[in-house]
Amino acid sequence: DVTGEGNSTTTNLQQGLAKSWVKFDASSGTPATSDSLNASSLTDHATGKHTLVFSNAMGNANYAFSCGGSNFGTDSRFIHNNGAAPVAASFRFITTNDSTSARDGTHNSVIIHGDLA
Q: What sign results for the dihedral spanned by CA atoms 26, 27, 32, 36?
């Protein structure tokens, strides 16, 4: 625990740390990871559709995720969970362009927060 501002509250620092993250480029059609944490693989299912497999599973499927990306400024990349129910061992997601079509992008990142198993 860490004492917060004003010395009035404590924060569990461990709960606030990212438990998994990946930065990758999928512009060639196959995702190439440039760096990651707690990521054993990044599976390519189809254009814009991927699964991040955790090296160490989350404690449950109630984790939070943040995602984003771009394609060298030509358009944004929106990343979301594609309607798939989250599972503790992995996170399935889709990247889309400004017109919501599935697209592989250049600069993509996914960050997971929650409790490890």
A: negative
